[in-house]
């Protein structure tokens, strides 16, 4: 050890207590999030309510596709669109849910100052609130896929899934969605309440540029370049391959599963690191300007 360098040894009991404290923060944030989201009805009614919107969009796509195909359920292109749209609901829920915490606590309930003063990491509280949204989104996703496999007879049942692709790709996709949400949350800290539309607006842009409904090849060059720089593009491609879909995007078709997984991992790490930097910079800016708990009623 360099002379003069302070060296602090943390006892195992103290380290364990710290982990328990963080776990308790996460658990309590999830409980608060659940109470805020669902206190107007029972659990299963709320889960069905949460599944109605994405399922309605999938059904709209199904009937629209019947214009060009008599049996969309057997068309590989439609199956790729359906699967991509179903999994993209996770991105919308997680990224939007993280950003929404700031607006909800600051503008609606006006408790952000008390939450911020609590002896727990603020970012961990936000992620805890987003975790409950993620759980709801995963249940909705399961309902959408079961409906497709049973009512529409689409080959998306458990027996058709390549889990070794689906699980790691989805985990990294969720992490990248949370990272994007942290960036949105940071911007919400220093802007007025109309920034609550930012996550939904960005979600609409990503819906087009990340190859969810259309292959990235069909986009103009600028939009294609944006899509190829985002982790969601590779997440959607790997998810489709996990359900047996290959060739939805001619540009990505020639890339193997392992290189595609590597690109997704690299972009996920880059976006996560950037998200923490942006959030911390916005948080410090909000504190310096005294707008952390501002309300913008108009």
For the termini, the CA-CA separation is 58 Å
Q: How many helices?
A: 11
Please identify the structural class as seen in this structure. mainly alpha
Q: Name the average pLDDT.
A: 86
- Rg, nearest Å: 21 Å
Helix content: over 70%
Poorly predicted segments: 1-7
What proportion strand? under 5%
- Count of beta strands: 0
Order of helices and strands: HHHHHHHHHHH
Largest sheet: none
Shape: globular
Describe the structure.
- The protein has helices at 12-38, 43-65, 76-108, 112-117, 122-150, 163-189, 198-209, 221-228, 231-242, 250-253, 257-289.
- It has eleven helices and no strands.
- The protein is an all-alpha fold.
- 72% of the residues lie in helices and 0% in strands.
- It is globular.
- The longest helix has 33 residues, at 76-108.
